[in-house]
Amino acid sequence: MGFIDKINAKVAVSPVGRWFKLEGCGHPKERKGSLFFTEIRGGLACFFAMAYIIAVNASIVADSGGTCVCNTRDIDRFCLKDTDYLMCTQQIKRDAVTATAAISSLATFCMGLFANMPVGLAPGMGLNAYFTYTVVGLHGTGPVPYQVALTAIFIEGFIFFGLALFGMRHAGIGLFLTLIGLTYSEGIALVVGATATPSSSPAAPREPSRGWHLPQLGQDALPRHVGGHLCGGIFTTILMMYKVRGAIIAGIVLVSIISWPRTTPVVDFHKISKILNVQEWNISGYGGQFGLALITFLYVDILDCTGTLYGMARFANLIDPVTQDFEGSSIAYMVDALSISSGAGISEGGKTGLTAVVAGLCFFISIFFAPIFASIPPWATGCVLILVGSMMVGSVTEINWRYLGDGVPAFLTIALMPFTYSIADGLIAGICSYICLNTIVWLIKVASGGRIVPPNYEERDGWTYRIPGGFFPVVVQSEVRTPSEGELASDVEKSGVATAQAPRKEE
């Protein structure tokens, strides 16, 4: 045995190995292929795949204006010329860097330690955009103040926790993030407002005979376009095409270095001063908007958490073929609810919570490098939002486009999110159109005794809250089908489960 093999074997039989159920620990449910050094490598890969969120989330939250007060709102709606206000938002950004790193560290560490899942947790790239640009609005121009919006998130988290505790538990957002990444305030300035059209390119035509020109966007126009487009976009995408770990953070670092070197301290601990203990429980003047924000936060959070956790569990081969659930699912939901996920560690071989514990420790170390994350310019993270959006849009292939009762609501959701600049409006349009279309079809079917139905009615996606072999109440967009004995035996063999009872037949 080599040195690495000996360490893997010793750790496996230690209390650490039995807690995380490493291969060779002797636990009845030990996870095959889970080795100590493999888990360490998976944790490092998980952190570097998610580290960009620290900078991107801080930039998005700072765009809300936080607790900053603008004294020139009457003449400058977005307070873009109020120096004191802009300095205050920079403080908000530094606070958000520390807060993002801290909560990601705590949540990821707890996910690994208590749920034994190789999953990293960090603020979601859809909900933070909804919080800033729809609920609070750019620099506080939205319908709900920053403090009241935080109260909605606080309540939503505990509602989600209750649902998980008692066992009741993204393409349009991708386009929404892409639009943010293309704009001037938080991106690479390829899309700007217009008068003749809803939006346009910054290279607007002066006269038909004199071609196009780049508008005067300020001294940062050149680094935004050269650095943001070429280095941030092309370089990062190429790295991702070759499956280079940490490709996104590498692109952000390169653009930041090229754009504007700073004399900022490298290592420091920034004390949060403006974004803690600022909730506002007097919501009497924001009832409707507060309720809409609360429901949207909860709805998106549940769907995001469910899809991510089950996707990662299936990717890591941790799904029980009988119950279609995974070990520690309730704890995983509760940890996510009390915090607010990445599978890069799983692709590096991570199968246990030790991967998440390592990633959580890395996030903790990053707290002391807050000055670096706070000094990253917006055009360095703009391309990241576009890349994240492109990856989220990939889920459209799972939509049932063959049946209009499924396809039209999905399209409305996807299209209206970026066009209305509101995730909530997109969700409402999709849900309402789905209910309306399919209820009318069902009523016509019932009234005609089943004779009048759309020609391809059988191609629709059925739905149920029940899963084959169990009763975990999650909406599943597929017909319920009990697997055959041969399929079940194959799944059991693949998952490494020694014995399994036959699934109970659905009523």
Automatic annotation (TrEMBL):
GO terms for cellular component: endomembrane system; plasma membrane. It is found in: Endomembrane system. InterPro entries: Azg-like, NCS2. The chain crosses the membrane at residues 96-115, 146-166, 173-196, 244-261, 354-373, 379-396, 427-444. Residues 484-507 are annotated as: Disordered. The keyword NADP does not apply. Pfam families: Xan_ur_permease. GO terms for biological process: adenine transport; guanine transport. It is a multi-pass membrane protein. One of its GO terms (molecular function) is purine nucleobase transmembrane transporter activity. The keyword Transport applies. It comes from the Eukaryota. Keywords: Membrane, Transmembrane, Transmembrane helix, Transport. Belongs to the nucleobase:cation symporter-2 (NCS2) (TC 2.A.40) family. Azg-like subfamily. PANTHER family: XANTHINE/URACIL PERMEASE C887.17-RELATED (PTHR43337), XANTHINE_URACIL PERMEASE C887.17-RELATED (PTHR43337:SF1). This is Xanthine/uracil permease. It comes from Parascedosporium putredinis. The lineage of its organism: Eukaryota, Fungi, Dikarya, Ascomycota, Pezizomycotina.
